[in-house]
Design brief:
This protein is of the alpha/beta class. The protein is built from 16 helices and 11 strands.
Length: about 475
């Protein structure tokens, strides 16, 4: 029986060293020599869907016939020794605010029930060209905001999977597909990744073309990946960036689509963020213990108590939640106010509660918030110099604890910083609390995503070898 099924029935608690995931990329040699096939891998994913979907509710729509045909085509390319890309044949779940020409895109809202685009979003178009297998559309919160969908956390069905990329995270954690697409304005990629015990990457802002994705808060929105392994997440994301291109005036991520070698950072900047004050002592102790182990490994840890520039940035973060609220609400006035005009009875209490706020905002409010966000970005960018040539990254928690009971999307206070400053960020499922996953967040510097992945790879290997 799938180990995640056992967990839902009250079996072993989450352990990052034994988490029962089946990543895609390690199987590529077997696809090439005939020891395994993309179709067989897909069928194992479908078995997990049959076993778990009724409980977890990760999907809005499935297209298994099309997925099987795509997997068979990938199998033929592997047999010929000519895979289309490093992710040829990879099953993918697509968050349901991302347009697909063959499946409805309903944005988690009754207002868009049955809405069928005629085109794929740019990211989906290039995934198909890569040979990826689009298995279905995954649940999102309403308009990727706060009103939850039906998805449950696979590790504990009474707890939230996190939002807004809830179906993508829960589907990966359940073994239904190895990589899911998510989007993040505040914490909607990293947080569900942490709550569901999988790897999640939010790249540098602007490095991926968002055409065909719900435009709410376009000036902060990031496309990200949630996956069964760091390799699955990175190769997918980098391939999309290199081929779909970046947003207007932004470049793709540099380099080849390959996994960088692990890199031990010489220094780590420990960030508190506004989330630290909301973190219970037992959870704090888990991060502190990890940092002590890293010190013993020869890594220098600097923080606000030892560095005035870090302290200045932490002080700037004090009102980042307010800044993020202002930017998100202004940038989503359209289309949200248009949605309220068109079908108010089809929208949640959360959307209605934002109406007065949005109508009373001014362009000056937005400009002031943007100015403060720019100052944060500049201050954060300055921290890169503290690494010199030896390598540096930032480290903190992804959330103040494991997934909470009930279905709230979760706290944003650890996550607003990387979103507002546009830095690449990574959540690794390296800790556990209450028998549930607890994510460790690493932040890098703009367009140095590959180096962050290399450092994250080292940290993962170090923790799992302890």
């Amino acid at each position: 029986m799938n180990a995640n099924v056992k967990r839902a029935e009250g079996m072993a608690a989450y352990d990052p060293k034994t988490a029962p995931f089946a990543p895609f990329t390690p199987l590529i040699p077997a696809f090439l020599d005939g020891g395994d096939t993309p179709r067989d891998y897909l069928e194992r994913c479908i078995e997990a869907i049959d076993a778990r979907e009724a409980q977890v509710m990760a999907f809005v729509n499935l297209n298994l016939d099309s997925a099987r045909a795509a997997a068979d085509a990938a199998g033929r390319r592997y047999k010929q020794g000519r895979p289309a890309s490093p992710i040829d044949g990879m099953p993918v779940g697509v968050k349901d605010i991302i347009e697909t020409e063959d499946l409805p895109t309903e944005h988690g809202s009754k207002l868009f029930a049955g809405y069928q685009p005629q085109w794929d979003a740019a990211c989906v178009f290039w995934l198909r060209r890569a040979g990826a297998v689009i298995i279905g559309k995954t649940v999102t919160t309403e308009f990727a905001a706060r009103w939850p969908g039906p998805t449950r956390n696979p590790w504990d069905l009474e707890r939230t999977p996190g939002g807004s990329s809830s179906g993508s995270a829960a589907g990966v954690a359940s073994g239904m597909f190895p990589m899911g697409l998510g989007t993040q304005v505040r914490g909607s990629v990293l947080r569900p990744g942490a709550y569901c015990g999988i790897t999640a990457i939010k790249p540098s802002f602007g490095c991926i073309n968002l055409e065909g994705i719900n435009p709410i808060s376009r000036g902060v929105n990031h496309l990200g990946t949630l996956a069964a392994s760091l390799e699955d997440a990175w190769l997918s994301l980098h391939y999309i960036s290199r081929n779909a291109g970046g947003e207007a005036t932004h470049e793709s991520l540099p380099g080849k689509t390959e996994m960088p070698a692990p890199e031990k950072p010489a220094r780590l900047i420990r960030l508190e963020t506004p989330g630290w004050k909301n973190t219970p002592d037992d959870v704090r102790a888990l991060l502190e213990g990890l940092l002590e182990d890293l010190k013993d490994e020869g890594i220098e840890i600097i923080d606000r108590d030892s560095d005035k520039d870090v302290d200045a940035l932490e002080t700037m973060f004090d009102d980042i939640v307010e800044i993020s609220d202002t930017i998100r609400d202004w940038e989503s006035r359209f289309p949200v106010l248009a949605y309220l005009d068109r079908g108010p009875e089809l929208l949640s209490e959360d959307v209605h509660a934002r109406k007065e706020i949005m109508e009373n905002m001014t362009a000056d409010d937005y400009a002031a918030a943007r100015q403060r966000a720019s100052a944060m970005r500049d201050a954060y960018a300055g921290l890169a110099a503290k690494g010199e040539a030896k390598g540096i990254a930032c480290i903190t928690l992804t959330a103040s604890g494991p997934a909470t009971p009930g279905m709230p999307t979760g706290d944003v206070s650890f996550l607003d910083p990387s979103s507002i400053i546009g830095a690449p960020a990574l959540s690794l499922p390296l800790l556990a609390a209450e028998g549930l996953p607890l994510g460790v967040q690493m932040l890098g510097f703009h367009y140095q995503d590959a180096r962050l992945i290399a450092q994250g790879s080292w940290l993962r290997d170090f923790v799992l070898a302890r």
